[in-house]
Amino acid sequence: MRIWIDGGLRDAGSATVSVLDHGLTVGDGVFETVKVVQGAAFALTRHLDRLARSASGLGLPAPDLDEVRRACAAVVEDGPLPLGRLRITYTGGVSPLGSDRGDAAPTLVVALGEAAPRPAATAVVTAPWARNEKSAVTGLKTTSYAENVVALAHARRAGASEALFGNTAGRLCEGTGSNVFVVLDGRLLTPPLASGCLAGITRELVLEWTGAQEADLPLEVLEQAEEVFLTSTLRDVQAVRLVDGRELPGAPGPVTAKAMRVFDERSGADLDP
Ligand code: PMP
């Protein structure tokens, strides 16, 4: 399976970026993870729109989305998989040491890996620190995931598979690699973008396809929610069975199960060959 880099396909062993790439030295880059089902990319246009928005937010030159599409198609054709995950990485390019990107030409890498079907119901914990909902990079899908990586390691040590962030105002925000939905008094709710969460594409689709509503929620809602689920490209809708040690019996509950059903029914229509 080859990787797209420097405008063409290369064997994985020779697909290398410079050690001076700003993506490596200072985390100056953006990325997307796209699910590929039987050779067709799911919601690719939405992912490319977000890639462009994130790049613009970092002040990177606009990515050539036709090239990104070509790269995705070439990589998928090169290594067909029943269920795959494309990783698109677009960085500040080879730059002088330090934070100044200068006039570097961006680096584009597209790689394909295997994906797994929807994971089983899981345990989550709250993250031990807050997400800054007012940072310059909030809402951008950047390659600076150190905070998420450390929070996820915390979750793993606690026997959970995801950590949920509150923001600096004490409101529910998102997971380290997922958005979060809660059921409260039978209503399906998810934090608004102003909470500092990523504009998750799965979140958007669940909002469009179910009666879910955006709601500014205190972090403590996790102590009362009747149901909780996570959304992300690789999970689609994943039920939560344990929040900070509190059991949510019968997960997936009825609202979560319905969201999964709706997702399964509707998602076939958004595949991009
Ligand atoms: N929040 C964060 C921090 C993420 O990394 C992800 C995964 N991309 C999501 C939310 C979910 O986004 P999506 O549904 O677009 O995969």
From TrEMBL:
GO function term, MF aspect, one: lyase activity
Pathway: Cofactor biosynthesis; tetrahydrofolate biosynthesis; 4-aminobenzoate from chorismate: step 2/2
Chemical reaction(s) catalysed: 4-amino-4-deoxychorismate = 4-aminobenzoate + pyruvate + H(+)
Listed Gene3D superfamilies: 3.30.470.10, D-amino Acid Aminotransferase, subunit A, domain 2
Cofactor needs: pyridoxal 5'-phosphate
One Pfam family matching this protein: Aminotran_4
Keywords: Folate biosynthesis, Lyase, Pyridoxal phosphate
EC identifiers of the protein: 4.1.3.38
Enzyme kind, highest EC tier: lyase
Family the UniProt entry places it in: Belongs to the class-IV pyridoxal-phosphate-dependent aminotransferase family.
Complex and partners: Homodimer.
Protein name, per record: aminodeoxychorismate lyase
